[in-house]
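Cross-check.
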Amino acid sequence: MAELLEFIHGFGGDLFGGLWPLVWTVVKIGILLAPVMFGVTYLTYAERRVIGAMQIRVGPNRIGIFGLLQPLADAVKLFFKETVLPSKIDRPVFLIAPVLTMAPALVCWAVIPFSPELVLSDINVGVLFILAISSLGAYGILMSGWASNSRYAFLGSMRSAAQMVSYEVSMGFTLIPVIMLAGSLNLGDIVESQKDMWNMIPLFPMFIIYFISVVAETNRAPFDLPEAEAELVAGFITEYSAMASGMFFMGEYANLILVSAMGSIMFLGGWLPPLEILGFIPGLIWLALKICFLLFVFLWIRATFPRYRYDQLMRLGWKVFLPFSLFWVFLTGAVLHLTGLA
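Predicted model, tokenized:
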């Protein structure tokens, strides 16, 4: 790998001269986002097939072998549909909102390590970076509801903002014990600290709270209250159509993959194998398998549980998860202090 990178840098430096660092950065971003966007595209297919199997249905099976070309057909349909803009909207804000919803989910991948060498930007505050950037997605949803000039969209955006803020607090507290055990905010260091034991074992309650919190934060069933069709038509995306509507869904699925990657890195050992004897399998494959497992659980939950009421959702976040995660932070600190590991 080192020899290959040295050859690429030498060749690129000769070809582009002083522009090579900029060109190389753009190439790395393209290499990083291509599989992410591929995953976003085919997660929609996987969701329909998995839920179809759980509900004893076939799922998409008409376009391509086993329906594998269905996501491409959906993408073509969205690209060629007419974008209808309501007459009394705030047009600039209305058009910026889908971009602001999707962009943070893609920017966060800059600090996700796929192996000790495969990371676009290996910064020392990777966890803080992801928490800060991912929280910006709430602004896009708020803007979409406000700019739509529709009561349904506005109520949906208010619900979503309250839900995302509420569960982001609990999610942040579940990550603090992980940071305390690793002694670092660097995602690579957090993975390396799990060589002897994955964080899921001593911090299993935090892993469960983290997972339920990210289900709520990504507005997924059974916490999809902002899009409750029986009450709000389609929530904050009611007035959107064509590719603008598609960008909201792409942002949602990109966030699903992101929080699954974060869960794998923080609690499931990242690229580390479950057993040392399996170390011959590349770490990138282990990380991908863990992400796929967590994504499967997302789909499983959607097919299994009915939608919560909004008061139940808020009560769970503020009266159950927040006090318990705070208690676990203090418990982790006390154990580290008493055992001399702090």
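The chain has 13 helices and no strands. The radius of gyration is 21 Å. Passed to J.P. for a second look.
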